[in-house]
Specification:
The complex is a heterodimer of chains A (about 350) and B (about 250). Chain A has about 350 residues and is mostly helical. Chain A has helices at about 10, 15-25, 40-50, 65-75, 90-125, 130-140, 145-170, 180-215, 220-225, 230-270, 275-285, 285-310, 320-345; strands at about 5, 30, 35-40, 60. The interface of A and B includes residues 9, 318 and 320 of A.
């Protein structure tokens, strides 16, 4: 004998208690639901499952309530397909899929590169079609606006590196070698890599997200529909701007990092600024600066290309946007460090005083 | 059901609503109409509790939504379902999980009951069980709206709020969707508030029409009485060429 209101709202406080009490009723019992005032589909589901998904033998129920339970029963009788469990075959498929995806990424990346070269050829032949406004806007965004954060990080790294080295060098009485360590380490290696990691996290992710949202809102399609090349308008300015901005950022960050090192060396080892600046060009050949700048340009090119590649792959949903932005940053940083290793091998005999 | 009094809304220096009173009784289908920028959707968002009016009060089911604290407010919000303009399905979930989400959150139903309820809601909005595993990105516009409607109905709401339910659907699908809303409204005894531009939708559904304009409610009456109101906007909206044809179509139906 049931009565009252059998709705989700009224049952929400004690559904579990009710469920166990209903389950305790013997199957042959007489069910009287005539006194039930309201019944919604949740109440129907609760009863239907308490009955073991079939009608009890002795049931007294209002016609409209019977219909509600009947509808639920009919819907439940056509079960929803369940996702298949993960098996060995799926593992193999996953492996193959990953490999194919990697190949597809590679071909897409090469295609993007090819389109860019084609665009470059176009703009070189028709100087009026240079997207100058976009390039300068991007330069401001990825270059000028990145200066404070790269300076702060560079300064702190310079101070820390100098401080730690000074502690060791003091023990050997080799104080003046701090200039060699800082000069070579920062200008040749740390400056470019540090800036690349910062820029990949800061500008690379922003580029991917921007292109991705433009894909989601169909802005990219609108551009194509107007006959405007999306690679010329969206990709080329970003790539050119970052390739130009990165060497400048490297120069700026390396300088600030050296300044930080200088301050620390002055406090720790009593090396004067004048001595530091005088010794630096003697112990660090100028070739190192060129290597640092070249690295900056190459890393900038890579970060921008990777960011645009992933940005243009975003499918119109939020999941894809977040996945591609993450992939963009991770890939860019990994690629930069890989290429840095290549640089280290290729330039091993240049600019290192023996 | 809904009782709004003296609603004032400002966006910066732009006054959108200036003292709006709107009372919606149980079982009604109220259409909010008005020109672009007249604050229809904003008014709907006030009812949902997503935005706060600068002044005035909103009472839902006899309780003040703005004064209610966290838990009370959540309980009130479970009593209505919202169909957003773009569907707003969670793109990380498939169709079945989208509909099951509010049920799982409420922690009342167990897994087997949720499965049956999801199947029932899918059948209610005339979708097949096979659609349950599709992701929102794979659905057509009309299906997105249907799934969103099923999700809005998941918690057995008393009040259903629809923002432009037929925007972006072709006339055929739009008519079918309106028919579906009407059937469900009758069957479940829902109160419905809808924002719309479309005279077809309005003529087929609304029992009362609230016309927004000049920062207030110009008229709040049944469709027949609204048509008789002498106001330039109402004349243009209902007696313009498109409006006349839509009304003729609606009247032609038995």
């Amino acid at each position: 004998m049931l009565s009252g209101s059998w709705t989700l709202r009224d049952l929400s406080t004690d559904a579990a208690v009710l469920r166990s009490r209903l389950a305790a009723v013997p199957p042959a019992a007489q069910w009287t639901l005539a006194a039930v005032e309201r019944l919604d589909s949740f109440g129907a589901a609760l009863l239907w499952h308490a009955w073991g998904q079939r009608w009890p033998q002795h049931l007294d129920i209002a016609a409209e309530h019977r219909q509600i339970i009947d509808e639920l029963a009919r819907a439940g009788a056509r079960p929803l397909p369940r996702p298949r469990p993960f098996g060995v075959l799926d593992l193999i498929a996953l492996l193959g899929g990953t490999l194919l995806l990697f190949l597809r990424h590679l071909t897409d990346f090469v295609r993007l590169l090819g389109t860019l070269v084609g665009d470059l050829y176009t703009v070189l032949r028709q100087p009026r079609s240079w997207p100058l406004l976009e390039i300068s806007a991007n330069l401001h965004k990825v270059g000028v606006k990145a200066m404070p954060v790269t300076a702060l990080v560079g300064f702190l790294i310079g101070v820390v590196l100098s401080y730690l080295s000074a502690l060791q060098l003091k023990a050997f009485g080799a104080d003046i070698f701090i200039v060699n360590i800082l000069g070579l380490g920062i200008i040749r290696e740390l400056g470019p890599v540090l800036v690349s990691v910062l820029v990949a996290g800061r500008s690379g992710s922003a580029m991917t997200a921007q292109l991705g949202v433009m894909r989601v809102t169909e802005e990219v399609d609108a551009l194509s529909a107007m006959g405007v090349s999306r690679s010329l308008r969206l990709v080329l300015p970003k790539v050119v701007a970052l390739t130009l901005a990165m060497p400048l950022l490297v120069l700026w960050t390396s300088s600030v990092a050296l300044f930080g090192g200088m301050v620390s060396a002055w406090l720790q080892l009593d090396l004067s600024f004048g001595f530091f600046l005088e010794t630096l060009p003697r112990v660090v050949p100028i070739a190192n600066v060129y290597i640092g700048l070249a690295k900056g340009a190459v890393f900038g090119l890579l970060i921008a290309l990777v960011a645009c590649h992933f940005g243009l792959r975003v499918a119109p949903n939020t999941e894809s946007l977040s996945a591609n932005t993450t992939a963009s940053v991770v890939t860019a940083i990994t690629l930069v460090i890989l290429v840095d290793a290549v640089f280290a091998i290729a330039t091993r005999s240049i600019g290192v005083p023996l | 059901m809904v009782d709004m009094r003296g609603i004032v809304t400002r966006f910066g220096s732009n006054l959108v609503h200036d003292g709006i009173d709107l009372a919606i009784a149980a079982g009604e289908i109220v259409a909010l109409v008005g020109g672009s920028g007249s604050g229809k959707t904003t008014l709907l968002r006030h009812i949902i509790g997503l935005t706060r009016p600068a002044a005035g009060s909103v009472a839902l089911f006899g309780e003040d939504l703005l004064a209610a604290d966290g838990a009370r407010r959540a309980a009130l919000q479970r009593r209505f379902g919202v169909l957003f303009q773009q569907g707003a399905l969670f793109s990380a979930f498939n169709v079945a999980d989208n509909i099951a989400f509010p049920l799982r959150e409420s922690r009342v139903a167990n897994a087997a009951e949720i499965r049956d309820l999801v199947a029932l809601k899918l059948a209610m909005v005339e979708l097949e069980p096979e659609h349950a595993l599709l992701m929102p990105a794979e659905l057509s516009g009309g299906m997105v709206k249907r799934v969103a409607l099923a999700r809005a109905l998941a918690l057995e709401p008393e009040l259903l709020l629809l923002d432009e339910p037929t925007a972006g659907l072709d006339p055929d699908r739009s008519a079918a969707f309106v028919q579906l809303i009407r059937t469900l409204q009758r069957r479940l005894g829902l109160t419905v508030v809808l924002v719309t531009h479309d005279v077809d939708t309005l003529a087929a559904l609304a029992t009362r029409v609230a016309v927004l304009g000049e920062r207030r409610i110009l008229s709040y009456a049944s469709l027949q009485d609204t048509l008789a109101v002498e106001h330039p906007f109402i004349r243009r909206f209902f007696h313009g060429e498109h409006g006349r044809r839509a009304l003729a179509r609606a009247n032609g139906e038995p």
